[in-house]
Design a protein that fits this description.
heterodimer, A: 2 domains, 43% helix, B: alpha/beta, 3 domains, 8-stranded mixed beta sheet, 3-stranded mixed beta sheet, 45% helix, elongated
Chain lengths: 268, 605
Amino acid sequence: MIDAINQYRINKEPYYRVVADEVAIYEAAYAERLPMMLKGPTGCGKTRFIEYMAWRLNKPLITVACNEDMTASDLVGRFLLDSNGTRWQDGPLALAARFGSICYLDEVVEARQDTTVVIHPLTDNRRVLPLEKTSELVQAHADFQLVISYNPGYQSVMKDLKQSTKQRFGALDFNYPEHAIEQEIVSHETGVSQEIAGQLVSIAKMARNLKGHGLDEGISTRMLIYAGNLIAKHVAPQRACRVALVSPITDDPDMRDALGAAVDTYFA
Amino acid sequence: MTLWVLRWTPILLSMMRAIFNRLACELKNHLNPASKVVLNDTRSKAEFSDVQRRLMIYLRALWNCEFVVKQAELDAAGEEVGKPFIEYNVINLPIVFFDYAQDNGTYLTGLEIYRAAATHAAAHLTFKKKPFSARSLNKLHIAMISVIEDARVETLAIRTYPGLKHLWTKQHTATPLANQTAGNYLNRLARALLDDQYQDDDLWIAQGRALFKSINDLENELISRDIGIQLADTFQEKKIKFDFHTDKLSAPYRDDNRYLWRRQVSPLEIFSPFFSPKSSVGIKEDNTLLKKRSSSTPDVSSNTKQVSATYFYPEWNYRSRSEDQSWVTLRESNPAPGNLSLIDKIITENQHLLTRMKALLRAIRDGASQRVRKLEVGDEIDINAAIRARIDISQGIPPDTRIMMRSVQKARDISVLMLLDLSRSMNNKIHNQDYTAIQLTQQVSVLFAEAIKTVGDPFAIHGFYSDSRHFVEYLRLKDFDQPFDELPKARISGITGQRGTRMGAAIRHATFHLNQQKSGKKILLILTDGEPSDVDVPDRKYLHDDTKKSVEGAKRNGIHTFCISLDPGADMYVSRIFGATNYMVVDHVKYLPEKVLLIYAGLTR
């Protein structure tokens, strides 16, 4: 089983540009095994940050992408049928708690509320995971830590975490980095020149002006990196921006047209 | 002689072609006789109504400001206005721009002209805050200063958005061949200042270029004036007469620069130029609309049932800890209708908010399907439950037999009553804003009613004010079964603020109306700017407690009460009366969509 957990180790340093004191705060939180919540818009670097921290702390990282059809047994584990009858299979949360890894529940707000409550006993001083089906009480490994990500966008009005869940976590706020830093990230990740990266960041800033005015979410750093990747493969910048930035973000024809025209204003 | 003719004919021909093209373009874009004729023209074109939203999004993306872009009204002679202009900080654009090929062969689309015009005007609004003084200047000075100022704001905009240069230069077609009139020179100068590639050996143009290049601080709003005056003085050496009426800039996107010279707004408004519609906007427009509408203003008394009944309600006395029965007299009455055009204006100006509200409400409506699991009899097998049961059987444990599930569409069954506080304090301006609480109330209720039409929930708008316990006036502006058409709109536009706020009685009466509705969920939304108060009650706590009691009474009747407070400082008493999670502060209509969503999502969850 140790092999099973070792496959979750991150061997190569992921690129992460430190923006403020988030690394120090996270290290302190990990030292206390404090459950953490990473808040911020999509594509701003939450997942990359946790990968980087797992590498830095040399701990395995189990990531679960949450969705609304996920049940508690998808997290905890279930009996499976096999030729010899039934066999218990640990879910990702049980695996992480048993063998000591960081368990990262991505977009946890997507999961149903009855599913999220299974993390409660793991996130207070008990640090246990009761497995009802096997009547087992898993004591969390000393290295175990739970981290969730959460995008407080407009969907949070429709779906929100219960207060009893929210109040079990410390929270790190993420946002799109400042111009110069975001430019550096885009340039590093894609290999395009600083100048082009700067133009891409300016375009993103412009689209972020439209958040709440027809766009649900601004252009993320991840999208900029996709655009940069296309430009690095010799796609003309304007075309790359249309493909990677404008078209994916909206289906509203007026918005696409206006954004497209706004993109053009950046390229002489 | 023959040689001379051969040499000059092509040049003359090209000049004549240029003049004809220009005339044709002018005819198309400047001298459009009437909008109907223009809009029926089958040539390819861009119409303002089709591009307005795009332009507003475009400007917002570039400048992160709320610019107001509207269609230019007819001019004094009843003609279409062919040239963009800025008035009261509102960008006015012509009703249509035709696509056409310019003299130099480049093809220009109507949408490109609109975009160029909108960005040019936005550059004026962004980089020029105070008008020039025209004192001691002649017409030529004014024209020259305007050309330099155009170039200044464009250069500043191009620094951030280099692509705008291409959009603008494309529309300048002046060449050194045009040297007859002062207008020719103005256009050549305008082109020379914008377009580095443009070749022009004229000494005066070169001087203009050199002076403009020598500016160190382009942000200095007065620099254009100095350079314009210098250039106007040297231009007089050319001995070309300047005619203010004909010597104009020809690039179709350029506005008429009235913005640069006229003081149009009070100093207070200059600092918040971008958010729209002050009451001063388009006074002429209002009057014309008023004239058009006057015949269609509905006659309230003729087409509605007369509502004028009297009701008696108890009131809670916190000192005696009991209710005084039949203490308050409430009278329902007919509200006076106002000017319909006001409501249409609200709807037109907030179209983008409305679209968003409608989309959000639709999303909530359509997203309300739910999977009901753990059913013995259902529409489909819940495969996870079935496997669990099979495993239990294998392990010898009694299985859970509820292995079916069903998808159900949550029935929308909500009635909403919006209760407007119409007390005197609503005439005051909202803290830090330049509109009154009544104006905001009108905007909120109209947008809400328009948006709710999409989901079709029963919706009513009532209002109240009071003058002692003997006189609480309750106005039914729109009833549940009434369509949101001209009559309720006219009534909303006619609301005014007067007298006191005896909220308890009004809430009890609203509860009475909501109780007549058969919906499973009932919402009472109260829009107010202040705490309850009335002339005959010096003790504020008395009315606070009574209002709190009335809210509790509504709750017992299954009504969720929400307070939309227009007063950002209202937190204390509002949360006491309505409960910490049942109120929200809306001090600008732009926050409305999200708030509406909050209310609705909270109730449909």
